[in-house]
């Protein structure tokens, strides 16, 4: 059994495995996970870890702890701060083991019932799960589970895993968990909490990240290395693609229960999702982004007066571009860090001013200057239009837009929130049409080979690509079972949110 507390707005709607355009026109990684075993005040440490992973999900957070006899659950809407910095809540999350989750949801109402970690009392005991990723056959599996009598309490694809564990005929909880994962497709990094120990697993392609750390004799699992830094833990290694680890009083045990596959980690972790002070796939994210900027400068030079980033995500690439091109780097745009989503949009006039809540031109630096504007990506292009217009209004003589990723032409179905393909600018327009739409003097994207070179590869091997780059190439590394059957799935009412 578990004691549970939570806050937020209940309700919500069942939604299809699709994507949506979001307010600030950025791709969104949809969650972060963090877990500890064998730590005094484990929930407080998990809360610190979730703080470091706040960028991975900002709409809801949750923690489940275990005190040796009982599970304790608290889930709430909003940021970690304000929900898990209260002593009364942390005190209720007793125990030396805990897991946590930050969530970024898709379109429609956000429901407390979808906030993770999800918890269920199974025949073999309590089972909590925090999931980063997206199951590309969740609707298909859900249809069969419902036909067999399962009753779902959320619209999350993660709940499919719980039902597969619950209905498995294997004897032990670990074997049931492995059996469940052998039935799912797509991307997942999972941290589970049971009375017997903490279990973590990464999908066989390693699409979503998961790292292992130690603090004394205690083990810590997290989406990114920066979360280990925050709690003073040492980075041990990445969880290998297809690896399952069990952490309990006996230490750590590693298993490789799945068929080996060539790894395909998400390339956008390097471009945008991970914090710059993290290491991903053995590489410094900050250094990679600087290298992307340098490659971009070599591929698409500009005769200009200064290099200006779209902060904060474009800043490392802009530094790399400026250094490689020998052009001064300046903060021509200042970002406010105290604004979330634009929340007041009563009419077109106010709506068009929304971008200035987050970004404002530094007029003193850019008036009369020829600018190289660096951003990490172009999705729908709406923010690019507003920023270029803002810079021209502030007196910029020329604005040359350079993008530190290839054109985003395809949706992601592995736990990244992207618009449907019909709303992706690069899927609808050629380069010149995009330049005209955005209103810049010139437009260029880094090539896919240039991106791979920045990652230390000679280029993209089309037969065996090193990364999952489907958003750029359309080369999806797994089946998209639910997408293939999307025409019939809505009639069954079996639509799940794209979730992490």
Structure description:
With 500 residues, this protein is of the alpha+beta class. The chain has two domains: 2-264, Glutamine Phosphoribosylpyrophosphate, subunit 1, domain 1 (4-Layer Sandwich), CATH 3.60.20.10; 283-471, Rossmann fold. The strands form six sheets. It has an eight-stranded mixed sheet with strand order 1-5-4-6-3-12-11-13. Strand 14 and strand 15 form a beta hairpin. Helix 4 (158-167) packs across helix 5 and helix 8 (285-299) crosses helix 16 (448-454).
Summary?
The protein is an alpha+beta fold.
Secondary structure layout plus pairing:
Blueprint: E1 2-7, E2 28-29, E3 31-37, H1 42-52, E4 60-66, E5 71-77, H2 87-92, E6 97-103, E7 118-122, E8 125-135, H3 138-147, H4 158-167, H5 173-181, E9 186-194, E10 197-202, E11 211-215, E12 218-222, H6 225-230, E13 234-238, E14 244-248, E15 251-255, H7 268-273, E16 279-280, E17 283-284, H8 285-299, E18 306-309, H9 315-325, E19 333-335, H10 348-353, H11 355-358, E20 359-361, H12 363-366, E21 370-375, H13 382-393, E22 398-403, E23 416-417, H14 425-428, H15 431-438, E24 442-445, H16 448-454, H17 470-473, H18 481-484
Parallel strand pairs: 1-5, 18-21, 21-22, 22-24
Antiparallel strand pairs: 2-23, 3-6, 3-12, 4-5, 4-6, 7-8, 8-9, 9-10, 10-14, 11-12, 11-13, 14-15, 16-17, 19-20
Helix pairs in contact: 3-4, 4-5, 8-9, 8-16
Helix content: 25-40%
What would the CATH topology of the largest domain be?
Glutamine Phosphoribosylpyrophosphate, subunit 1, domain 1
What's the end-to-end separation, in Å? Answer: 25 Å
Order of the strands making up the biggest sheet: 1-5-4-6-3-12-11-13
- Cα-based radius of gyration, to the nearest Å: 23 Å
Largest sheet: 8 strands, mixed
As residue ranges, the low-confidence spans are: 8-23, 341-346, 487-500
Proportion of residues in extended strands: 15-25%
Shape: globular
Average pLDDT, all residues: 89
Structural class estimated from helices and strands: alpha+beta
**Tally of domains:** 2
CATH architecture of the largest domain: 4-Layer Sandwich
């Amino acid at each position: 059994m578990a004691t549970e507390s939570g806050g937020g707005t209940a309700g919500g709607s069942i939604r299809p495995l699709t994507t949506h355009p979001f307010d600030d026109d950025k791709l969104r990684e949809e969650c972060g996970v963090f877990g500890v075993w064998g730590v005094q005040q484990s929930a407080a440490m998990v809360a610190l870890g979730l703080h470091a992973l706040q960028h991975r999900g900002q709409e809801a957070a949750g923690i489940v702890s275990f005190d040796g006899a009982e599970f304790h659950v608290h889930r709430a809407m909003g940021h970690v701060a304000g929900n898990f910095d209260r002593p009364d809540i942390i005190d209720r999350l007793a125990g030396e083991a805990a897991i946590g989750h930050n969530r970024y949801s898709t379109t429609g109402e956000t429901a407390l019932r979808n906030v993770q970690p999800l918890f269920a009392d199974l025949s073999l005991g309590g089972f909590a799960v925090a999931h980063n990723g997206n199951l590309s056959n969740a609707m298909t599996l859900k249809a069969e589970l419902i036909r067999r009598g399962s009753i779902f309490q959320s619209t999350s694809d993660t709940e499919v895993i719980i039902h597969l564990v619950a209905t498995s005929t294997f004897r032990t909880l670990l074997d049931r968990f492995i059996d469940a994962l052998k039935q799912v497709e797509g991307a997942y990094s999972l941290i589970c909490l049971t009375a017997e120990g903490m279990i973590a697993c990464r999908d066989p392609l390693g699409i979503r990240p998961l790292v292992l750390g130690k603090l004394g004799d205690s083990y810590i699992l997290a989406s990114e290395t920066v979360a280990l830094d925050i709690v003073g833990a040492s980075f041990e290694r990445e969880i290998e693609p297809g690896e399952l680890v069990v952490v309990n009083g006996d230490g750590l045990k590693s298993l490789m229960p799945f068929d080996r596959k060539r790894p395909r980690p998400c390339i956008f972790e390097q471009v945008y999702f991970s914090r710059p002070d993290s290491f991903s796939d053995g590489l410094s994210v900050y250094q990679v982004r600087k290298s992307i900027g340098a490659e971009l400068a070599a591929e698409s030079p500009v005769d200009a007066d200064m290099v200006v980033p779209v902060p904060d995500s474009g800043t490392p690439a802009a530094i790399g571009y400026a250094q490689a091109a020998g052009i001064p780097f300046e903060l021509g745009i200042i970002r406010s860090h105290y604004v979330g989503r634009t929340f007041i949009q009563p009419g077109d006039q106010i709506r068009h001013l929304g971008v200035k809540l987050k970004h404002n031109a530094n007029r003193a630096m850019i008036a009369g200057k020829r600018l190289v504007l660096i951003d990490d990506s172009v999705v729908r292009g709406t923010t690019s239009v507003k920023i270029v217009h803002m810079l021209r209004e502030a007196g910029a003589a020329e604005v040359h837009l350079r993008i530190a990723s290839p054109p985003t032409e395809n949706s992601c179905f592995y736990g990244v929130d992207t618009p449907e393909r019909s709303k992706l600018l690069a899927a609808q327009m050629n380069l010149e049409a995009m330049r005209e739409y955005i209103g810049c003097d010139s437009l260029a994207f880094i090539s896919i080979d240039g991106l791979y070179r920045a990652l230390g590869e000679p280029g993209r091997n089309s037969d065996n690509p090193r990364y999952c780059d489907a958003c750029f190439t359309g080369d999806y590394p797994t089946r998209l079972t639910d997408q293939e059957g999307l025409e019939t799935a809505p009639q069954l009412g079996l639509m799940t949110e794209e979730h992490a």
